[in-house]
Amino acid sequence: MSHDAEEEETPPATPTTTAGKDQEEETWNLQKQALIRELSQKLINGDLQAKIEAARDIRKLVRKSSVKTRSKFGAAGVIQPLVSMLSSPNLDAREASLLALLNLAVRNERNKVDTVTAGAVPPLVELLKLQNSGLRELATAAILTLSAAAPNKPTIVASGAAPLLVQILGSGSVQGKVDAVTALHNLSTCKENSIPILDAKAVSPLINLLKECKKYSKFAEKTTALLEILSKSEEGRVAMTDSDGGILSLVETVEDGSHVSTQHAVGVLLSLCRSCREKYRELILNEGAIPGLLRLTVEGTSIAQERARILLDLLRDTPKEKKLASSVLEKIVYDIAARVDGADKAAETAKRLLKDMVQRSMELSMNRIQHRAASCTPANIPSA
What we know:
Elements: H1 18-45, H2 48-63, H3 67-75, H4 79-85, H5 91-105, H6 109-117, H7 121-128, H8 133-147, H9 153-158, H10 161-171, H11 174-188, H12 203-212, H13 218-230, H14 234-242, H15 246-256, H16 259-275, H17 277-285, H18 290-299, H19 302-315, H20 326-341, H21 346-374
Helix pairs in contact: 1-2, 2-5, 4-5, 5-8, 7-8, 8-11, 10-11, 11-13, 12-13, 13-16, 15-16, 15-18, 16-17, 16-19, 18-19, 18-21, 20-21
């Protein structure tokens, strides 16, 4: 069942002149205005069955409509009665109103805000608690859509929706999980938050989702952003190391992720190592993190490069006063390049040399991993 708005609305196409087209469009607009008034009246004054039918008709009309049509429905007063239907004991009424509200809110900021102002969030939170997976995931999609409007975020955060969205991360359908992650990501940017919206219970399902998704995807970017938030608490950090394959998934994201997801992933690893170097250093090194971090010092965003340099220093097994900082290494390589190819080509040569070093380091790291895997007994190899 699709809840996304589709293409912009156009009147029925028939071969005609320019004047004929204008007349046809005007006729279509008048018909549409009459239909909006008729459906609004049914929704406001009709019995329950009439309201359900009106809500379904609104959803059908709005799905392929322009923003202007959504605005006209909002101005006609349909949002409040649709919100009231969300609390109906009749499940058909709940579903019909939910789908109508969802489609009215897509691509329409005013309708998003008006829907929350009309009191939609508490009944949506109740729908998130239902065993009915269809309604629960439609409610998740609605929370996602409404949370895209900044004025709505404090109300949704205060409603207690976040822990229920976390439950969907572990038990929902694929679409439900995607919607829940995106909604949580939207809510995490709420500047009015005085307390974190996530706790350590979110770590395990987020790690599992990160393991399964493409590391360069938008989904991975949102997932790693949430994990970076969670890495700022001790409970979150412990949960990451307790999650099977947690650190490995973050290392893989550093290696294969987009600029955004690598920045978040290295941020998580740095947060771990800064909190307790003795505890996390070996865990990170054992997953072969060095090659990806070296590459990140050359190819990442400025923030990711800085984080990678700091983390590499923390991972080195030398006393603090003898650490060779990444910036020093880069200067040495630059000086060598300048002597070989001259100052005008030094930067390009240095970058190529650093990439060669990264590649060689990756090959050595892979050899070590293969050697370690070959030395494992079957009992030591985790099952798929």
